[in-house]
Every structure is written in C-alpha cells, then in structure tokens.
Design goal:
The chain is mainly alpha-helical and about 230 residues long. It contains twelve helices and no strands. Helix content is about 60%, strand content about 0%. It binds a DNA duplex (13 and 12 nucleotides) through helix 2, helix 3, helix 6, helix 9 and helix 12.
DNA sequence: GACCAGGCACATC
DNA sequence: GATGTGCATGGT
C-alpha cells in the first residue's frame, strides 16, 4: 500500500469515527462556523499556543465585548489592558507581546490591512510570519491554512505521534519532513487539510497519547511499528 | 492536587 | 545541534 493510500485510509477511519471537527471555517466548503473573520482566526492561532481552546474562546469573547477584535484597536491598546483581556488564555504576558509583534509587523509593513497580506504568495507570507517573534511553524501554518486557505498542512505533536507509531516516518523526523509527507502524498486540498489536522488532534487527545496503548482507537487495526511513542 | 491543553523563544550543555 | 525550562489559566 502506498503512502498516499495509507494517509487516505487514516483520514477515512478518523472521519468515520469522529465526523467533522468544526475548527475554523473553510469557506470553500461552508464547513465550520460562519462569521470567524481572518483576523479573529489569526488572533486565535496565537492565543491557542499550548492552550486548551475553551480558554481561548473566553479570551476572544473578552476581546469582542471590549470591541477590541480589530487590528487598529489592538495595535493601539496598551499592554496591560490587552493582557487583562486575554488572561483566560494563559501565558498572557507572553501572548500580549506575541500579538503586539504580529500587529507591529502588520502596520509597519502592510498598513494594518489583512487584505494587503492576502495578496502575498504562500511562500512569502510563510517566511514573513516565521520572522515574527512568537510565531513558529505550527502557528504560521495554522494561519496560512485556516485564515488564508492556502494548501499547507499543519503539523503538531499529535501528527508526529500518529505518523511515527504507524511507521510512516522515523522517530527522528522533523517538522518539514512531517509536513511534506502529507503535502506530497495527498492532493492539495484546503478543506481536506483543514479537517485532517483537526482529526489528528482529536485522535491524539482521545487515544494516541504518550505511552498509552491503542485499544479503542479508530486506527488500532492498522499496522503499527511502535505501540507507544 | 496532579495533569494537560490546537507552542515558542531562549539558555545551557 | 539537541535538550531543558519558563510561561499561566481553567477543565478533568
């Protein structure tokens, strides 16, 4: 069985078990919850770093209630006020700086307008995002996929665990190898990448945990090279 | 009360 | 270059 077929089978098993995960919307398919703006998705992608999504929702609700979910308002807001609003998301001092560094880039380079960065090529936008302090591989790729609907596969710790357990890559693989495994083996389909990443997070949280066995996992009958990673 | 969550930058070896 | 550590809240 080819890598492409294996990845497709994994996707189908996960979708069959868990169904759509309703992450950030894919407007091309109309999935997810309508109304999340590109700006809100970007802010959410930064706030959710190593943080439970329900905590991020509280922080975003605070920003909305303060009429602060706009680039201009956040750009001009003082650090203490912003930190207080995003407090429920945890790491609020660090995340305040990270949001500010994104906004500073947006205003300094692109007049504070998301429409202006929308025009950039995927490669250029990715490079620019990675140069912002506080935006690493996963956050940059989440922004590219979920906010700008570019066909970029988002890799995280769950992705690595599933891929390694099923012998698709070595345990020593890096982010780029994991990303290219999916991007080269699957068709470049934004809706597929959107749902696939969300499903990998789901199976990672529910079953494919560190040191946990595979019983009950929708992937448990697939070939494993390693039971625990 | 321990453990985890939709990471990242930085220090240290 | 690899490994360790700080950052912080809220749910289970």
């Amino acid at each position: 069985m080819s890598t492409s077929e294996k990845l497709t089978e994994i996707y189908e098993l996960l979708f069959e078990r868990f169904g759509p995960q309703h992450w950030w919307p894919c407007t091309r398919l109309g999935t997810g919850w309508p109304g999340d703006s590109q700006f809100e998705i970007i802010i959410g992608a930064i706030l959710t770093q190593n943080t439970n999504w329900t905590n991020v929702e509280k922080a975003i609700a605070n920003l909305k209630n303060a009429n602060a979910l706009s680039a201009r308002v956040l750009y001009e807001m003082n650090l203490e006020e912003l930190a207080a609003l995003i407090k429920p998301a945890g790491y609020f001092n660090i995340k305040t700086r990270r949001l500010k560094s994104f906004l500073t880039w947006l205003f300094d380079e692109y007049d504070g307008r998301i429409e202006n960065i929308e025009q950039l090529s995927t490669a250029r936008l990715r490079e620019d995002l990675l140069n912002i302090k506080g935006i690493g591989n996963e956050t940059a790729d989440s922004i590219l996929l979920y906010a700008f609907e570019r066909p970029i596969f988002v890799v995280d710790a769950y992705t690595a665990r599933v891929v390694i357990r099923h012998g698709l890559l070595e345990g020593s693989c890096d982010y780029e190898q994991l990303q290219q495994l999916f991007q080269f083996s699957l068709t470049e389909d934004v809706a597929l990448f959107n749902e696939y990443h969300a499903l990998l997070v789901r199976v990672g949280k529910d079953f494919c945990k560190p040191k946990a066995k595979c019983s009950g996992c929708p992937l448990e009958n697939l070939p494993h090279t390693i039971e625990t990673v």
